[in-house]
């Protein structure tokens, strides 16, 4: 299991607590220090069954000057923006060893990925 996190984020800390409580072994990726490239982002977004703009944090995107239309014509630009400005990526993103991937911001998403790992 891999966990993309920002250690200062309360949702990330909750995810860590839940994974630890479930006894799950995971690898931490501090995505602000080790940003994903566009290819990795494409893989993750595909596993999430979302669009790249769906994993963008609106406030941070605005602060970073990312103001793109949320449509297929701008999909590649969104991937480039997410790679260039990892601060705008939703967190935590968790991928179980079976490929199940969630944005673990709520209990249901955390349960889903924990269930996939156990």
From TrEMBL:
Gene3D superfamilies registered for this protein in UniProt: Glutaredoxin
Protein name (Swiss-Prot/TrEMBL): Arsenate reductase
The family this protein is said to belong to: Belongs to the ArsC family.
Pfam family name, one: ArsC
């Amino acid at each position: 299991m891999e966990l993309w996190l920002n250690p200062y984020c309360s949702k990330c800390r909750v995810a860590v607590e839940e994974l630890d409580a479930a006894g799950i072994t995971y690898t931490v990726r501090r995505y602000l220090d080790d940003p994903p490239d566009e290819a990795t982002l494409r893989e993750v977004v595909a596993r999430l069954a979302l669009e790249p703009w769906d994993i963008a944090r609106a406030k941070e995107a605005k602060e970073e000057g990312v103001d793109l239309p949320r449509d297929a014509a701008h999909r590649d630009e969104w991937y480039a923006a997410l790679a260039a400005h990892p601060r705008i990526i939703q967190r935590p993103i968790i991928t179980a060893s079976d490929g199940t991937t969630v944005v673990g911001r709520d209990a249901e998403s955390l349960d889903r990925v924990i269930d996939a790992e156990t």
